[in-house]
């Protein structure tokens, strides 16, 4: 079976201490940051192309209103317990590598551009260790929130913070009195050529 390598990219917003969730939800309300997430993950280079979004089960069931439907996007939910894809998801897989193969092998390989991994913790951890993972889109929410779910620690010498990045605002933003900065960390050695 032919395999087309696809870039695997993580996208997350974290506050101090890499906190990213509380009681199954986002700890903050930042509608403009959420819009940046939707715009970034649904962007494709030309009509007919699509991205694949990989969701952990808890994340799927706690997604904010207005996430779905998302243009140009196929959704894969990961679970070892579920027996069929939940409503509005396109696929169910029971491990990360099977989700990646879906995007990298025929027939979907012809149309998928980017695999967007959108958490939670275990999915992020597995994804960032994958050789095709080249970019981490991490919004730095500059505030303290109580969290019970955290983004995994990662090697900042391997994934290097970019001063500027195409399509990513470079200025510090503020909403609801909360400052945040959109950032990208890049792994130069990703195996996606
Ligand atoms: N701030 C942000 O940007 C952001 C981003 C993402 C999530 N979050 C927050 O994070 C929380 C949800 O994340 P979470 O870490 O608690 O849960 P999660 O990863 O969404 O869901 C965990 C479940 O997903 C399934 N799963 C995960 N990885 C798998 C794999 N590799 N293979 C097969 N199944 C897999 C398992 O389901 P089974 O038990 O069925 O096997 C596991 O119990 C929420 O609070 C959400 O709001 C925040």
UniProtKB/TrEMBL annotation:
Signal peptide: none annotated. InterPro entries: DHFR, DHFR-like_dom_sf, DHFR_dom. It comes from the Eukaryota. Keywords: NADP, One-carbon metabolism, Oxidoreductase. One of its GO terms (cellular component) is mitochondrion. It catalyses: (6S)-5,6,7,8-tetrahydrofolate + NADP(+) = 7,8-dihydrofolate + NADPH + H(+). It holds the Pfam family DHFR_1. One of its GO terms (biological process) is tetrahydrofolate biosynthetic process. Residues 7-187 form the DHFR domain. Its EC number is 1.5.1.3. SUPFAM superfamilies: Dihydrofolate reductase-like (SSF53597). One of its GO terms (molecular function) is dihydrofolate reductase activity. Pathway: Cofactor biosynthesis; tetrahydrofolate biosynthesis; 5,6,7,8-tetrahydrofolate from 7,8-dihydrofolate: step 1/1. Belongs to the dihydrofolate reductase family. This is dihydrofolate reductase.
